[in-house]
Amino acid sequence: MINTLYLPGFRFLPTRLNRRIKANAHEVEELLRGIVGKRERTMKEGRASNDDLLGLLMESNVAETKQAGNSRPIMTMGDIIGELKLFYFAGMDTTAVLLTWTMVVLSMHPEWQHRARDEVLRVFGNNNQPDLDGIHQLKIVTMILYEVLRLYPPVVQLDRQTHKEIELGGVTYPPGVILSLPIVFIHHDKDVWGDDAGEFRPERFADGISRASKDSPAFFPFGWGPRICVGQNFALVEAKMALSSILQHFSFGLSPSYTHAPFPVSTLQPEHGAQIMLKKL
Ligand code: HEM
């Protein structure tokens, strides 16, 4: 899983790549500072709406600051920019790559593509925009997305650091130890999932997540515990909406130029791209 050599302190050296990373980070921060500043002004003028994440965040910041009787806002501009970056990164690439792998896998398994399309057409017809009521009725599509998340988890590994001495599984760890949970390996473990662990078999999720594996929790593409992904329901609704629209209007298959090479960059990406041919239905 680790595919680059890590040299402590290397990121501080003024190499060409590091300078570019720094310049890009600065540009993104300036853009976000502009967006937040503009929203602050419209809020002060009473013209802002709070129907998006930024509006909610800023409104709650004002309310919490007032309640605490602080003269300075509880969340600084830096905090708000940090949250925006986190939500963009955590929410955008992960869901995009889930959809990418779903298209790849459904191209490799046309029988599941047909089953998914039959279900989508039964629920939404071939022209209606997918809605939330219908999304909740999609069973085959849900099984497919779970199986894709099992085989190609966008986040391949979770890290945790001990902050005090702790005993886990009979081993005592001092503070400061980094423990890595290799999601991708556990999702492919034959002892947990059976001999077909490496195969695409959405039917394993027919009776829900807990019945799909011998051990539980064995399926945790969104993490586990108090820091579990806050966007998981949103991500699944988004992926179902997008996939339903694609299935309604297109059939698809892999281009001969496609090479299967899952590769962890920051999320699990197809190393040589996902060349997919779509045909209008
Ligand atoms: C397929 C899509 C997604 C996957 C696989 C995914 C996966 C994850 C994982 C593994 C974590 C770390 C959990 C942990 O440390 O235990 C996480 C955290 C997080 N995710 Fe997602 N995520 C997805 C979509 C989204 C979306 C759409 C949003 C926002 C709209 C989002 C927002 C976040 C945030 C803010 C955190 C940090 C939570 C915290 O530290 O308390 N994610 N996600």
Automatic annotation (TrEMBL):
Against InterPro entries, the record matches this protein to:
Cyt_P450, Cyt_P450_CS, Cyt_P450_E_grp-I, Cyt_P450_sf, Cytochrome_P450_Monooxygen
What the entry lists under Gene3D superfamilies is as follows: Cytochrome P450
Question: Which GO-annotated molecular functions does the record name?
Answer: heme binding; iron ion binding; monooxygenase activity; oxidoreductase activity, acting on paired donors, with incorporation or reduction of molecular oxygen
Q: Which UniProt keywords are present, listed alphabetically?
A: Heme, Iron, Membrane, Metal-binding, Monooxygenase, Oxidoreductase, Transmembrane, Transmembrane helix
Q: Which residues bind heme?
A: 229
Provide GO CC annotations from the record.
membrane
Q: Which cofactor does it need?
A: heme
> Where would you find this protein in the cell?
Membrane
Q: Name one Pfam family in it.
A: p450
Matching PANTHER family: CYTOCHROME P450 FAMILY 72 SUBFAMILY A POLYPEPTIDE 8, CYTOCHROME P450 FAMILY MEMBER
Name of the featured protein: Cytochrome P450 72A15-like
- Origin organism of this chain? Panicum miliaceum
